[in-house]
Amino acid sequence: MGTKRGVEAERTGSGPPVLLTIAGSDSGGGAGIQADLKTFAALGGYGTSAITAITAQNPDGVSAIQGVDPGIVAEQIRQIARYTPLAAAKTGMLFSAAVVRAVAEAWSEQSPHPPLVVDPVLVATSGAKLLEDDALAALCERIVPLATVVTPNMGEAALLLGRPLRGRADLEPAARALHARFGVAVLVKGGHLSDSAEAADCLYDGRSVAWYSRPFVRWVNGHGTGCTLSAAIAAGLGAGQPLAEAVKHARAYLHAALLAAVRVGPAKAINHAHAPVTVLGG
Questions:
Q1: According to the model, what pLDDT value does residue 6 have?
Q2: pLDDT at 281 exceeding the cut of 50
Q3: 7 domain-assigned
Q4: Does residue 197 fall inside a structural domain?
Q5: Confidence of residue 130 (pLDDT cuts 50, 70, 90)
């Protein structure tokens, strides 16, 4: 058995960046906690998790949701952070106002705060509500302002702004408006655009605008793309990349994983294991 000093050296020595996902569990494996952990592993991180809700779902839809007690959610975060320094974290489905408040309280205890990617998961691709009605205000007040970057898709950005977004021309104004409201960097994702063959995203950090565009991959079920992208951004930030570079590499990883899609049941799904660790340094 090693000495106390030796054990402590092993615990604090160099190793992969420890990444935390605070999100719901997806029984179908393509989104939520499962997608995040797969992404962290593919990109060379060590994934940890705080589960906010358990869902019964597959890529076709969500049939049931059971929220986790807010105190348990907060304690998961605390226990992970007490054991090892976090390189970065992300939030996904937070489900209820009580969970939002618990996450914000537990996160406020971290010092210094590692980079935080906030994916404001409001509605599933299938249309199922993943955030209770009274939780949106709490999310905006307590979680979004803590973010290094917030990553809404067009539908989520429209709900946050209270106005419709119809096409690519709306992405930059939406990113600027959300930054003005929350004071954090915003990546508005246009992956669901019907007026373009490109999947275009717009990042505004308060100083400059960056556009990212790749051909839209149409033959793959898009379930979990938002979770995967935000997890990959967290992995990049945890590896020390500047935000714009982390977004660039995260989109490259997601695109490669879509192109290498694997058949799962009746459709093709994201192949999270495809992209090599070198994506982060490539």
A1: 35
A2: no
A3: no
A4: yes
A5: confident
> Looking at the 3D structure of the chain, how many domains does it have?
1
| 36-55 pLDDT, tens digit each | 999 999 999 999 999 999 99
- A 10 A CB-CB count for 41 gives 17
Residue 273 lies in a domain: yes
Q: Enumerate the β-bridge partners of residue 216.
A: none
Runs of H (alpha helix) within the chain: 4-12, 32-42, 70-83, 97-108, 135-138, 154-161, 171-182, 225-238, 243-259
Distance from the first to the final alpha carbon of the chain: 40
Task: Tell me the whole-structure pTM to 2 decimals.
Answer: 0.92
Host domain of residue 146 = 16-280
Closest CA to 40 of 23, 53, 60: 23
* CATH code assigned at 235: 3.40.1190.20
- Residues shown for the chain: 282
> Which residue in this structure is represented by tokens 């991180």?
45
The CA distance from 42 to 172, in Å, is 31
> Using CA atoms, how far apart are residues 193 and 84, in angstroms rounded to an integer?
40
Nearest CA to 112 among 137, 130, 85?
A: 85
256 by Cβ neighbours in 10 Å (0-12 / 13-18 / 19+) ranks as middle
Contact between 188 and 200 under an 8 Å Cβ cutoff? The reply is no
Within 8 A by CB and 6+ apart from 242, the residues are none
Res 280 pLDDT > 60: no
Task: Tell me, yes or no, whether 11 lies in a domain.
Answer: no
